[in-house]
Every structure is written in C-alpha cells, then in structure tokens.
Design a protein that fits this description.
By secondary structure, the protein is an alpha+beta fold. The chain contains ten helices and twelve strands. The strands form two sheets. The protein has a six-stranded mixed sheet. β1, α6 (104-113) and β2 (117-123) form a beta-alpha-beta unit. α1 (2-24) packs antiparallel against α3 and α3 packs antiparallel against α4. The chain starts with a helix and ends with a strand.
C-alpha cells in the first residue's frame, strides 16, 4: 500500500512539475504561456505531493519537491500579499459587469465605494440607462464593438481633457482625466482569452495604441491573464506600466469573495506607469458578476 501511495503522489508531483516547467517557457509560445496561469495552483499541488512523499518515507525526493514548489510560489506571492494601505488622492473601481448579470449589485458597490473613477468591461446597450443615471459621474465614455453587443466604459467624477480614443474591435477605451493630483490617461481594456484563443493577436494589434498613450497612465481591465504570464509582461512593456500587486484572485467569483481571492485566477488588473503610485489595492465582495471588483487608490499625475 505504501508503494502504491508513493507511486500515486509521485505521479501527482511529476504532473504538477511538468505544468510549472511548461509555464516557464511562456515567452517562447502562447501555448506554453497558458500553463503559466495555473502556476500558483501547481505550486500548491506540488507542495502537497512533496509533503505526502516525505510522510511516506521518500524524504529527499519529497524535500526536493517541496523546495521546487516554494521557489515557484515565490514568483507569485506578491500577487496575493496585501498592500499596506496608505493615503492617496484618487480611488478607482475596476469591474467586469458580466453582460447579462443583474447590474443592481454593481451599482450598489459603486455607491458604497464612491470612487473617483469607475472602469467597466462587458458593458451592453441595456446598461446605458443605469449608468447615465449615476449623477455622481457626469463624465462618461462608452466604447462598444461594432455590433453594439459588448464594450468597455469609463465613468469619472472629474472632467475629461483633450482627446481620447476608442478601439471597439479590441475593446480599448482611453481618456485624459483631470484628477486632483494632475492629469492622468485612464484606460479600460477587455482582453480576449489566451491560447488557443486570440489574445496574442489582439495584444499585437493594440500595441501601437498602448505605446502612444500620454503619460502618466492608468490602465484597468480584465486581461484574462495572470501577472506573471508572458502575455501580461508584454502588455506592461508596450504600455510602460506595471501591475498593482496585492489584489489576489478575481475569477471565478461564483463561490464567494474569499474563495476567489485565495483560490481563483488573478486576471483583473490595474496597471500604472511612472508618475503614478499605488497606495492601496484590494478586491471587494462579489456582485452578480463572475469577477470580483478591484479597488485601487493611487496618487500622482501630470501637473
């Protein structure tokens, strides 16, 4: 029985290790990068298998397995470690509404948080009346795909200045906003799914627009990719931004806030450039969407 158990958990360790190793090769091909999204889960599975192997008498094999798991988890831990809250000037609320979910809980979250900026994805035409009714946000921009079925939006308490832009096919919207700390380009973005879907092609199409966004900039959205993936790293380089850490998992939210925060995938992000400093980042309780809202407080801007 001991030999059978060692064999089973040895196989689990090999499978988890193979997934982690393939994910490390993400910069080489989108196929490999898809494995990177599950690095945190693979590290936990590998550590569990290693601990069991130690208990079953395979001490050096189990110890090596746990060590590899710890090294893998060290590369993702900043995503889950809370950011110590400090005072900031601007609060941003990032939400994927989920097209046909009840918008009521999302509106309640906006009212309760009262952020300066609300950045939205999966916005549909039937959401327009509810959003237009938010008197606290007189400055609004909406960017729908050509069929008008799905899109992104930006709501602001502060006025837009200068020109903005909208790429409806790729669901990227941006506006320059006059914030208390100075003008900041704020963007909403909804990424396609990763390999075998069209995320890589979408990122290539929007790269020129990202590179041209006036600085400083804040981009919020559902990137459908984790912070340590090659996809997000390429996005960060193109836009000159970095993911705000400490948010944790955001999807799926169907099992509640705690489950999504600690067990889910971290795919909803707020990314900031030089000149903007994140001073607080957290997820909020689930709305009717399958994504947790993300609240980020930041300071800075161009004066």
């Amino acid at each position: 029985m001991g030999a059978l158990a060692r064999g089973l958990f040895g196989a689990l360790a090999l499978a988890a290790f193979a997934g982690l190793a393939l994910g490390v090769l993400g910069p080489l091909a989108p196929f490999f990068d898809s494995f990177a999204h599950f690095r945190a889960h693979g590290a936990v599975a590998l550590a569990f298998a290693g601990a069991v192997l130690i208990a079953l008498g395979w001490r050096w094999r189990g110890g090596l397995t746990v060590a590899v798991a710890a090294a893998a988890f060290a590369t993702v831990v900043t995503t889950f470690a809370p950011v110590p809250a400090q005072e900031g000037e601007t609060r941003l609320l990032q939400m994927n509404l989920l097209l046909y979910a009840d918008i009521g809980p999302a509106l309640d979250a906006i009212a309760q948080e009262a952020p300066d900026l609300v950045v939205l994805q999966e916005v549909a035409p039937h959401h327009r009346p509810a959003l237009a009714g938010l008197a606290a946000y007189p400055h609004q921009a909406l960017c729908l795909i050509p069929a008008g079925f799905d899109g992104v939006a930006l709501l602001s308490k502060h006025p837009f200045v200068g020109d903005g832009g909208c790429l409806p096919r790729d669901q990227l919207l941006w506006r320059r906003v006059a914030l208390p700390g100075g003008a900041v380009t704020v963007a909403s973005f909804h990424a396609k799914l990763p390999w075998p879907f069209s995320q890589t092609a979408q990122f290539a199409r929007i790269r020129p627009a990202l590179e041209a966004l006036p600085a400083p900039r804040v981009i919020a959205g559902d990137l459908n990719a984790v912070p340590w993936s090659a996809s997000v790293e390429r996005f960060e380089r193109a836009a000159g931004v970095a993911v705000a850490r400490g948010v944790g998992g955001t999807w799926p939210a169907v099992y509640g806030h705690a489950a999504a925060r600690w067990l889910g995938l971290s795919i909803d992000h707020v990314l900031v450039s030089d000149g903007v400093r994140v001073v607080a980042a957290r997820t909020l309780p689930a709305t009717a969407s399958d994504h947790l809202p993300v609240s980020v407080t930041f300071s800075g801007g161009a004066r």
